[in-house]
Design goal:
The complex is a heterodimer of chains A (125) and B (325). Chain A is an alpha+beta fold and 125 residues long. Chain A folds into 2 domains: 2-31; 34-115, mini-chromosome maintenance (MCM) complex, domain 2, CATH 2.60.320. Chain A has one helix at residues 8-32; strands spanning 2-3, 6-7, 37-42, 45-51, 59-64, 68-74, 77-83, 102-105, 110-115, 122-124. Chain A has a 4-stranded antiparallel beta sheet, with no helix packed on it. A 3-stranded antiparallel beta sheet of chain A has the order 5-6-7, with no helix packed on it. The longest helix of chain A has 25 residues, at 8-32. The relative contact order of chain A is 0.17. The longest helix of chain B is centred in the N-terminal third of the chain and has 19 residues, at 2-20. In chain B, helix 4 packs parallel to helix 8 (267-280) and helix 7 (158-175) packs antiparallel against helix 8 (267-280). Classes of the chains: A alpha+beta (125), B alpha+beta (325). At the A-B interface, helix 1, strand 8, strand 9 and strand 10 of A face helix 1, strand 1, strand 2, strand 5 and strand 6 of B.
Chain lengths: 125, 325
């Protein structure tokens, strides 16, 4: 059965491909992400992802790395608030709130970074 | 046939739609004791995986803690001609150029201070003297058959490693046809191409407020590395000590600098120059930077920022002074 120049089967194929394209768009775009997320990792493996834009109040949790570190999340951002590591340099990083910011506790192997939202593409130092 | 053509057209439209949306592939790994972040435009996850594998392989080769080329060198072996040999040659050349201020045979001194551990400490003067007796780039022999040590020299390539890793990754991105990429290995960054035509923005960490940036660099096809006294440090007897050691005294460098960021077209060199320039101080760094067509941003203890003239075109910073050519 013909529908103008295209057969019904053609329209179905086009519809499927367009849906696949939209899904691909959603999937790929999600890696860029519009909202800010704090990503906590231990030696490259994601431990926790936090939607920073929806944080209402301050809370704290512990990540058990090579040393235990305490992470505090608040509407202002995310930070290492305490650490059992020897040098405590991670605590000195302060609060991260913009895309591209990263803090690392090298002795513990734990890192915190912010992705999504406005900010830079990377940080040196 | 018509159906296939239609399907191909629709898929092409979908791909173009996705590409125009600014989508990128993002991944995070861990190597050289730090996170490795990768963002790729125009290439897929397999490319990021290949790059991370290459960085891990490089780590095996250049870490004195592993069982690769550098460990072999440090135990009296010979590194044959090839990639690591070339990297040692590049480091040796900078040793000569900086009059020994930059020296990869610094490892015995690093070990004496415990900067290879989580618990660095103030060594006895006798330990520093013993370590200094083993330090000297002249104890590296670069022969026809390869590189080897004399006089008990042991090398540490960590001042070049993260920058070299960024370059390794960018070379792999290019071979996969990526149109843009940004890779960070700890504090070293590599940017390749553009993100859909736009340059990348890289923040320079503020040494006084570590979560913040002291400057932004907007650039393409470059490598950026920073050496700062805030990175590894400890306090003993009320005095603060950092990990950037002066090979003439055996103690941390004290020249009023707190960080140096270097931008250039070679990954390892950006890393090496950031350490070298920290040790040399601002004035003595200028000719070395010029020789390598590199640009630098210096932050002093008093908070003042100084930049080389070539950096001004892509720099965003609240307050800075431009250094002479």
């Amino acid at each position: 059965m013909k529908t103008g120049l295209l057969k019904k089967a053609d329209l179905i194929i086009i519809a499927v491909c367009v849906i696949a394209g939209v899904m691909a768009f959603v999937l790929f775009s999600s890696s860029g992400g519009e909202g800010r997320q704090a990503v906590i990792e231990y030696r490259g493996a994601t431990v926790r992802v936090i939607d920073l834009d929806s944080v209402a109040g301050e809370y704290t949790f512990t990540v058990r790395g090579d040393f235990d570190v305490e992470i505090t999340v608040s509407p202002e951002g995310v930070r290492f608030s305490a650490s059992a590591c020897p040098d405590k340099l991670c605590v000195a990083f302060g609060t991260l709130s913009k895309r591209g910011q990263i803090a690392v506790c090298m002795p513990a192997g734990v890192s915190v970074r912010v992705r999504g939202g406005e900010g830079c593409d990377g940080m040196t130092g | 046939m018509k159906k296939i053509a239609l399907a191909v057209c629709a898929l092409c439209a979908a791909v173009i739609f996705s590409a125009c949306s600014g989508a990128y592939e993002s991944s995070v790994g861990y190597a050289m004791g730090v996170p490795v972040t990768q963002k790729l435009w125009g290439a897929g996850a397999d490319c990021a995986e290949e790059a991370l594998d290459a960085v891990l392989k490089l780590e095996d080769d250049i870490s004195y803690r592993k069982n690769g080329a550098v460990a072999l060198f440090n135990s009296g072996g010979v590194i044959p001609r090839g990639e690591i040999y070339d990297l040692i040659c590049e480091n040796y050349a900078l040793f000569i150029e900086t009059g020994g201020a930059y020296d990869i045979t610094i490892l015995p001194l690093v070990l004496a201070w415990g900067f290879d551990t989580d618990l660095p400490h103030l060594p006895e003067q006798s330990e520093i003297n013993s370590a200094l007796a083993l330090v000297g780039g002249g104890n590296i022999i670069l022969g026809e058959d390869g590189a080897y040590a004399v006089g008990g020299a042991k090398i540490d390539l960590s001042a070049a490693g993260k920058g070299a890793a960024c370059q390794k990754a960018c070379e792999i991105y290019a071979s996969h046809g990526a149109t843009g990429a940004v890779v960070t290995v700890g504090g070293s960054v590599g940017v390749m191409g553009t993100k859909n035509g736009a340059p990348f923005t890289i923040a320079v960490r503020d040494p006084f407020e570590l979560s913040q940036s002291v400057a932004l660099l907007t650039l393409t096809d470059s490598y950026i590395s920073t050496s700062g006294s805030y990175e590894k440090r400890f306090t003993a007897d009320g005095e603060e000590y950092h990990h950037l050691l002066d090979t003439s005294t055996g103690y941390p460098v004290k020249n009023g600098l707190v960080s140096v960021t270097v931008v250039c077209s070679d990954g390892a060199l950006s890393d090496m120059l950031s350490s070298a320039c920290f040790c040399l101080g601002i004035e003595s760094s200028l000719s070395v930077l010029k020789n390598h067509s590199a640009q630098a941003l210096f932050v002093r203890e008093d908070g003042k920022v100084f930049v080389t003239p070539g950096m001004v075109t892509y720099l965003e910073c609240d307050s800075y002074e431009v250094l002479p050519e």
